[in-house]
Amino acid sequence: MLWKGLVLSALSVLNSGMIFANGASGNSTSSSFTSAIKVSGNAFFNSKTNERFYIRGVDYQPGGSSNLTDPLADIDTCKRDIPVFQDLGINTIRVYTVDNSLDHTKCMQMLSDAGIYLILDINTPGASISRYDPACSYNADYLQSVFATIDAFAGYDNVLGFFAGNEVINSENTTNTATYVKAVVRDMKKYLKARGYRQIPVGYSAADIVSNRLLVAEYLNCGDDADARIDMFGVNDYSWCGDSSYTVSGYAEKVKLYSGYSIPIFLSEFGCNKVVGSRPFTEIQAIYSDSMAKVFSGGLVYEYSNETNNYGLVQISDDGASVTKLTDYYNLKKEYSSVSNPEGDGGYSTSYSISECPTYSKGVWEANNTLPEMPAAASAYFTDGAGEPLGTLISTQNMCDDVEDDDSVSSLSSVASTSNTTTSSSSSSSSSSSSQVTSSTPTGNTTSQTTSKSLVSKQVSSSSHASSSKSKGAGNIISTPLLFQWIQKVWNIIL
Ligand SMILES: *[C@@H]1O[C@H](CO)[C@@H](O)[C@H](O)[C@H]1NC(C)=O
Ligand SMILES: *[C@@H]1O[C@H](CO)[C@@H](O)[C@H](O)[C@H]1NC(C)=O
Ligand SMILES: *[C@@H]1O[C@H](CO)[C@@H](O)[C@H](O)[C@H]1NC(C)=O
Ligand SMILES: *[C@@H]1O[C@H](CO)[C@@H](O)[C@H](O)[C@H]1NC(C)=O
Ligand SMILES: *[C@@H]1O[C@H](CO)[C@@H](O)[C@H](O)[C@H]1NC(C)=O
Ligand SMILES: *[C@@H]1O[C@H](CO)[C@@H](O)[C@H](O)[C@H]1NC(C)=O
Ligand SMILES: *[C@@H]1O[C@H](CO)[C@@H](O)[C@H](O)[C@H]1NC(C)=O
């Protein structure tokens, strides 16, 4: 399984990945419909037309976390879904996990032709910051995965932005992880520069936790090092349920809370399903209103496909060949088509200042303003590129940098035993998908902690998923890019 996976990865690299290997920033998708989006002040703008850009989107990960597949690497999936996106009238999708070893050229071109942008989460279940041991999970192997995903996508003009993390801070006792999220933001932005790529916006998608929602926003947008500050902030917000209103939902208070925030904010997930029957999506009228446009730049509905958590707009047939549009779909389409963007620039501003860094406070805000240095071994990627993309098979959360790697050949045999999920609850279950399904659902703004329903989200930042990726056949852990270089050498000899 290991060998097969590696050979497949190598093949797909030879096939496609090399196109972007040199940091080329050319137009691999050139469509006037999707000229690059840039950030100016607290809003997005189309770099060609200079029109303000509002995200009208859906979150997209057919299969969810129980059957995690890269939807942008499968042409049949793209042919099935992209026409539906167009019919729905959206301009952006968010994808939570891709396989950086696969070829995305065709799907990215199809999206571009359809006028659709991509917001991409950079992590995979196995390669992400762990809430339980953030320091250990922040290592050079992890960054190799992150940078290789940048390599695979930076060439496309219709990449609107990258999320460096999703709901890593998902409670009152996980604020310490913010330090590592911010370090990843910094490393990604420095990598984009070092490789000569377009300065694609790098952001974070936050869980809506009452006790720290503002602190997270401020922390990630503060400090002297511009590279360590995010370029955009997504909030996963399920506070508008059913036929709510601007004030009842709490949207009005959020606008007040975030007003003066100096970078674009948008709803990276919305669409409360605590309703009888279908979701009316009347929040669309509020989101694209003058009142909100001063602070928010649109949002993405959670989510395209109906999975076990019942948030879907369409039902995908068992054989995957077709989709059936659900009532939610028709409701959303009606709202998107009847609500236009605010006139002019929507009252955006370029004159707001970056945020003040929140001070350390035990039990409230435990993120350190001194970020960890990038692991030394990762600097080589800045000069040479990330090297071979290793796909979704790798698990890097327990690879601490103070553990010396063996030489590349011997690590082949030793890797299988190094996995240790340090999670408390769910790691006991070998088929982790079932434990995911029981995770909490959004409950509006009544609870002190509104955790997201996003199964994928949970998976992406939780170390329990070492086991889930293993159950997909990735039982072996590849510990170093060196290993891959060695395999490539062998491969070249075979060729
Ligand atoms: C990319 O395409 C745009 C619009 O078609 C064009 O203005 C720009 O010069 C192109 N960039 C490169 C690097 O070819
Ligand atoms: C998982 O997704 C793939 C690709 O969409 C599909 O072919 C496969 O049938 C799915 N597996 C399950 C168990 O649903
Ligand atoms: C945070 O607290 C909750 C509830 O007490 C606990 O289940 C969870 O494991 C804690 N998380 C971490 C990362 O300590
Ligand atoms: C949401 O919050 C607003 C303002 O804080 C409050 O008036 C409203 O009752 C809340 N709605 C729900 C459903 O709890
Ligand atoms: C969505 O999927 C869930 C779980 O499979 C199912 O119970 C529900 O009926 C589906 N929703 C719709 C509207 O078909
Ligand atoms: C913050 O991080 C720095 C460097 O890692 C460390 O020296 C310092 O003790 C940390 N401070 C706190 C309050 O954790
Ligand atoms: C895995 O981690 C747990 C908790 O830190 C520890 O008790 C256990 O000894 C570790 N197992 C291995 C094989 O390293």
Automatic annotation (TrEMBL):
It comes from the Eukaryota. GO terms for biological process: fungal-type cell wall (1->3)-beta-D-glucan biosynthetic process; fungal-type cell wall organization. It holds the Pfam family Glyco_hydro_72. Residues 409-472 have a biased composition (Low complexity). One of its GO terms (molecular function) is 1,3-beta-glucanosyltransferase activity. It is a lipid-anchor; GPI-anchor. It is found in: Cell envelope; Cell membrane; Membrane. Gene3D superfamilies: Glycosidases. Residues 1-17 form the signal peptide. Residues 404-473 are annotated as: Disordered. Its EC number is 2.4.1.-. InterPro entries: GH (IPR017853), Glucanosyltransferase (IPR004886). Keywords: Cell wall biogenesis/degradation, Disulfide bond, Glycoprotein, GPI-anchor, Lipoprotein, Membrane, Signal, Transferase. GO terms for cellular component: fungal-type cell wall; plasma membrane; side of membrane. It is an enzyme of class 2 (transferase). Belongs to the glycosyl hydrolase 72 family. Splits internally a 1,3-beta-glucan molecule and transfers the newly generated reducing end (the donor) to the non-reducing end of another 1,3-beta-glucan molecule (the acceptor) forming a 1,3-beta linkage, resulting in the elongation of 1,3-beta-glucan chains in the cell wall. This is 1,3-beta-glucanosyltransferase. It comes from Arxiozyma heterogenica.
